[in-house]
Structure formats: structure tokens, C-alpha cells
Automatic annotation (TrEMBL):
Catalytic activity: (2E,6E)-farnesyl phosphate + H2O = (2E,6E)-farnesol + phosphate; 1,2-dihexadecanoyl-sn-glycero-3-phosphate + H2O = 1,2-dihexadecanoyl-sn-glycerol + phosphate; (2E,6E)-farnesyl diphosphate + H2O = (2E,6E)-farnesyl phosphate + phosphate + H(+); (2E,6E,10E)-geranylgeranyl diphosphate + H2O = (2E,6E,10E)-geranylgeranyl phosphate + phosphate + H(+)
Organism: Anser cygnoides
Transmembrane segments annotated in the record for this chain: 126-147, 184-209, 221-240
Region (Disordered): 1-49
Swiss-Prot/TrEMBL keywords: Endoplasmic reticulum, Hydrolase, Lipid metabolism, Membrane, Nucleus, Transmembrane, Transmembrane helix
Subcellular location: Endoplasmic reticulum membrane; Nucleus inner membrane
Full protein name: Polyisoprenoid diphosphate/phosphate phosphohydrolase PLPP6
Record carries keyword Cytoplasm: no
């Protein structure tokens, strides 16, 4: 016979169970009628599904911990989030870096280059870069719209030309573009080694600057870099050429 104390404690500690199970009808294992029938003896063990509902999974705990560390680290690293922040004087410089990774200069520059190109190789590369940039914009907008993670609270929304989904933070559009363009340029432009190093450094600086400006959390940027890197493989797979997209190339042939 269980002590009245332990039975009372069990009931007091789990009010949700009582209401949850009693909704299932008179035969519910822990319902008052069942307890009366069994002469007040200890209730049978709870069904496994109900126990699992109360136990947060390992993945859940790991994710919440990662998010907590992410928010904490992003706040600490947002040293240029405002003029009054610890490194506030570097903010104008980081905003120049921001413009260097923005979609508009890249789209306009690529389009201009395409109009000016006088070799079929240049046209092919620039047309694919334009396709890559547009694909990147669409993909980032879709993911931002699905995830809807708000930007860090310390972010000042004073960015150069944004669209509605840019109020969301995950993933960083600048980081995806930087990684995508970096991989693209390294594969399709013949550059001296110092310039290749510079391109990689630029992509990394764009990523780091997003957190320093307070625009993003660290995970937004890490995921953005990975997404941009992976997106290049999709562009390579769908590579447009005069053979598979003759109409598109005819548009640019003078
Ligand atoms: C309007 C066009 C063509 C592009 C928007 C570019 C933009 C503002 C992206 C947001 O980047 P983050 O997600 O890194 O803040």
C-alpha cells in the first residue's frame, strides 16, 4: 500500500496528466473512478507516449542550447551595432563592406558587363553569374519567409535597399551571396594568387561584418555561407550554355 504522501505528491506534481487522461473516458488509467475501483491503490504506470510528451528530446535541448549560445555570442560580437557601440567608429567602414556584398551592385554590375561583353566566353560566364545571383535572391527570400527569425534586437534597420523579407534574419543574404560569388569567381575568372586570396578574404569579411554590424546572429551567417557554397554546385549543375539555352544567348548576341 503506497503512503498517502507519495500518492498526493504524484497527483499534485502532474495536474496536466490528470486532465489529459481523464478526457479519454471513464476507463482512463489515472481517473478518479479507476482509483476508486482499484480501492485507492497506486495508479498503473503512465502510457509511454504521455511520458515522452513531457520529456524534451536530446535534439530539442541541444538546439535550444545552441540558440542560447548563438544569441549571447552575437550580442557580444555586435560591436559596431550602433555609433555608440564599443567599435562604433568602424561602423561606416563596415557599411561599405555591406554595400560590396549587396544584391543591387552585383546585379547591375553583372548586367552591365553582359551588355558590354564582346566574347562568347564572357557572355556565358556573366549570364550564369546573373542566373546565380537571381537564384540566390529567390532562395534566401523563401528560406527567410519560412523560418521568419527576427533580426537581433540590437540591429538598427538602416540598410541600403531592402525588400519585405529582409526584416528576417535567417539566413544572411549577404553571406550566401559572398560565398556563392567567391566560389563562382574562383572557378571562372583567371586571377593571380593574391587576388584569389583577396576574394576569399572579402567573402569572410562580409560574413563577419554582418554579426559585427548587429544585422545577424552567428548561425544566420554560418548557414548563409554554407548555403551560398552549396548553391554554387546547383549553378554548376544547371550551367547555361548556347547548347541548352540558345534563346537566352541569342538575346545577347550582337
Ligand atoms: C533588393 C535586392 C536586389 C537585394 C536585397 C539585398 C539585401 C538587403 C539582403 C539582405 O541581406 P542580409 O540578410 O545579409 O541582411
Amino acid at each position: 500500500m503506497p503512503s498517502p504522501r507519495s500518492s498526493r505528491e504524484r497527483r499534485a506534481g502532474r495536474p496536466e496528466f490528470v486532465s489529459l487522461l481523464s478526457q479519454r473516458g471513464p476507463a482512463a488509467p489515472d481517473s478518479p473512478s479507476r482509483r476508486r475501483e482499484s480501492g485507492g491503490s497506486a495508479p498503473p504506470p503512465l502510457p509511454e507516449e504521455d511520458c515522452m510528451r513531457l520529456n524534451p528530446s536530446f535534439v530539442g535541448i541541444a538546439l535550444s542550447s545552441l540558440l542560447a549560445v548563438d544569441l549571447w555570442a552575437s550580442k557580444r560580437l555586435g560591436v559596431c551595432a550602433g555609433e555608440a557601440s564599443a567599435w562604433g567608429s568602424a561602423r561606416p567602414l563596415l557599411k561599405v563592406v555591406e554595400v560590396s556584398g549587396h544584391g543591387i551592385p552585383w546585379l547591375l554590375g553583372t548586367f552591365y558587363g553582359l551588355c558590354q561583353s564582346d566574347s562568347s566566353a564572357a557572355r556565358e560566364v556573366l549570364l550564369n553569374l546573373l542566373f546565380a545571383l537571381l537564384l540566390d535572391l529567390v532562395l534566401v527570400a523563401v528560406v527567410k519567409g519560412i523560418v521568419r527569425r527576427p533580426r537581433p534586437t540590437h540591429n538598427k534597420m538602416d540598410m541600403f535597399v531592402t525588400v519585405s523579407v529582409d526584416k528576417y534574419s535567417f539566413p544572411s543574404g549577404h553571406a550566401t551571396r559572398a560565398a556563392l560569388v567567391c566560389r563562382f569567381v574562383l572557378h571562372h575568372l583567371v586571377l593571380a594568387v593574391p587576388l584569389r586570396v583577396l576574394v576569399v578574404l572579402w567573402a569572410l569579411i562580409v560574413g563577419v561584418s554582418r554579426v559585427m554590424l548587429g544585422r545577424h546572429n552567428v548561425t544566420d551567417v554560418l548557414f548563409g555561407l554554407l548555403l551560398g557554397y552549396a548553391l554554387y554546385s546547383v549553378v554548376e549543375y544547371c550551367w547555361l550554355s548556347p547548347l541548352n539555352a540558345p534563346a537566352l544567348f541569342a538575346l545577347w548576341t550582337h
